[in-house]
Design goal:
alpha+beta; Arc Repressor Mutant, subunit A; two-stranded antiparallel sheet; two-stranded antiparallel ribbon; 4 strands; 34% helix
Length: 105
């Protein structure tokens, strides 16, 4: 998975591009599309592919990568924030905040 380093508030942080190499989203499936996207990103966090502190791509870029509407990504990231997995810092981006089941976070 490609990763790019950026300067964030005086320290180096990374932005991880999520490029699904297999179909992840099933629009005709029983689960809502935004929930499928949120679950997939949560899976990347759980597997360690997205580390705590990793910066997610912009929502419009995620929409293009997943092949879904921008509003779908907005709802997915809102769900991930509710789950406590990501946090958005205005003007800086969206970052992985915690790993599910990790007692340190």
């Amino acid at each position: 998975m490609p990763s790019y380093a950026y300067e964030c508030a005086g320290r180096v942080c990374s932005t991880v591009m999520i490029m699904p190499d297999r179909p992840v989203i099933d629009p005709s499936g029983p689960q809502l599309v935004y929930v499928q996207v949120a679950d997939h990103i949560e899976g990347l966090i759980q597997s360690g592919e997205l580390a705590v502190g990793a910066r997610l791509p912009a929502e419009r870029d995620l929409a293009a990568e997943y092949g879904v509407a921008y509003d779908t990504i907005r709802r997915a990231t809102a769900l991930l924030r509710e789950r406590g997995l990501i946090q958005t810092v205005h003007g800086r981006g969206t970052f992985v905040a915690a790993i599910p089941g990790d007692k340190r976070g």
